[in-house]
Amino acid sequence: MKTTAIFAIFFLFFSFAYSYSQSNTEIFQLSDTNRKKAEKHFILAEKHVGNKEIKKAVKRYKLAVKYNPVYVEAYYKLGKAYEKQNKSDEAISQYALAIKYNPKYTKAYDCLTDVYKKLGRLEEMAKHYKLAISYDPEYTWAYFSLARLYSDINNTPGAIKNLKLAIKHSPQYPDSYNNLGVIYWKQGKLENAEEQYKLAIEHDPKHVASHNNLGAVYLQKDKLVQAEEQLKLAIKYDPKFYYAHYNLGLVYLKQAKPEQAAAQMKFAISNNPKLSDPSNNSGIAYYQRQ
User: I want to staple 166 with a disulfide (CB 3.0 to 4.6 A). Which of 20, 153, 176, 232 is the partner?
Assistant: First the structure.
């Protein structure tokens, strides 16, 4: 029976270093005395966090926002402290307050949507990323995260649209190209996928995912020399990346190099035992059986 290679298709997630200043507190006519008290409690809270004294930190953050009701960073940090205590609802409320007083405070959006994701509240997650974009249309991470969400729920048009917007606003980041390539690959558009993987590598020559995925495309197109080259580059930049070893093993099988194929697949299995499960249709044992 003719076999079909299984390729490593995955998304990489990372954080962008956006930062915004605290919202304007003068409109609340905050006194210098209260401002200083708020800052004092905030500093003490940070020390408690450093010492892993979360309960004490929570008390200090609460005092900080008591004396400065628009202390955005304090609300944000209080939310993170509540997360450490596994108090999701409390964390959500604090992140929401940080956003209320500074709608462009992207760190709060990131944490808030992460909590919603853990709780499976995907509609709220999407809603707040869209809200973030409404205040900051160049917020690349929001577009990228929306695309990831839409991909997870099989909203392919939404995923493509947001990845293209992420690329538009931050063309230097390779992950967006890679993920767009993944979507095209799933649609059977190999030429489009190949183009996106190459663009990712152009922006980051050491982008492991794109080297692996480009190698997978070449493997599917029976361009074995090019596939081997790309997969070896993926392994060079991440020697323990088992998907690249697995795909390289498939290349060697097609090249009638059983010993080299066995070595690559053995390494892949050692790093991901599930690949040897006969019931796993993406596993090595399945293809050996075929």
Answer: 176
**Residue 240 placed within a domain:** no
Domain count, the chain: 1
Whole domain around residue 40: which residue ranges? Answer: 30-136
d(CA 290, CA 2): 8
Tens-digit pLDDT profile for residues 170-208 = 999 999 999 999 999 999 999 999 999 999 999 999 999
pTM as predicted: 0.73
Helix axes 106-118, 140-152, angle to 10 degrees: 10
Q: Which pairs count as long-range contacts for 230-238, CB under 8 Å and 24+ apart, including other chains?
A: 234/208, 234/209, 237/206, 237/208, 237/211, 238/208
Q: Give the Cβ contact number of residue 104 at 10 Å.
A: 16
Question: In whole angstroms, what is the distance from residue 54 CA to residue 50 CA?
Answer: 9
